[in-house]
Amino acid sequence: MKKLLLGSVLAAASFTSTATIVEMNTSQGVIEINLFDQQTPKTVENFLSYVQDDSYNETVIHRSVSNFVIQGGGFTFSDSLDAITTKPTVTNEPVFSNVKGTIAMAKLSGDANSATSQWFFNITDNSAALDTQNGGFTVFGQITAASQSTLDKIAALVHCGETPVVDITAEQCSSNDVTISSANLVTIQSVTVMDDDPNSSAGLTVTANTLIDADTSTDSGSSSGGGLIWLLGAFLLALPRLKRAK
Questions:
Q1: What is 14-244's CATH superfamily?
Q2: What is the pTM of this model?
Q3: Which of 12, 71, 107, 208 is buried deepest, with most CB atoms within 10 A?
Q4: What contacts 31, CB < 8 A, 6 or more positions away?
């Protein structure tokens, strides 16, 4: 009976959630995120562990794809590009749908339980692909309406490859003589817990992932969505001709 009741709840198009609230201060504006503590507890605990030890401070947005995602949580940039130290992988929790305005964990293609530090914002409704690919991508939070303008601002920047840049033109991106500094990248200056009460947003309405159980495909996620996590080498390829400023 309990199992049947749970299935009925998850089959609903949307339902209320509870959330810790975090504020992500970026060089392009503030993003406020409601985290789904009770429905995706392992993922939220993992994300907050990086927040609590300041691992996300001074990291950069290394990937932005038009009408798809904005991705970060993996790299810092000072005199060189460096991957942050990651912790053990977290178990996949594909409870919610990858609709516009949600934040989800990035992971390795073909491994549903490979997420560590990297995450991405869905800047459009990606549910048709990402709710089922690679075991489904775990949505663990939702931005506030006021935060959408910051994501729109990042998405509208010039991109060198898939990396959004500031004060660099598209023509300069293809030049061998352009230098780059941290000021040219979208930087996450800090991520702060604003309200640690898991019931702080009891009226928040979110969309359930109703596709994951219905998916019968054997595709492990070889498309662009399935390989959302970028390793350091791939990040370097995103800025193929930019010289680091000394």
A1: Cyclophilin-like (2.40.100.10)
A2: 0.83
A3: 107
A4: 23, 24, 121, 143, 147, 150, 151
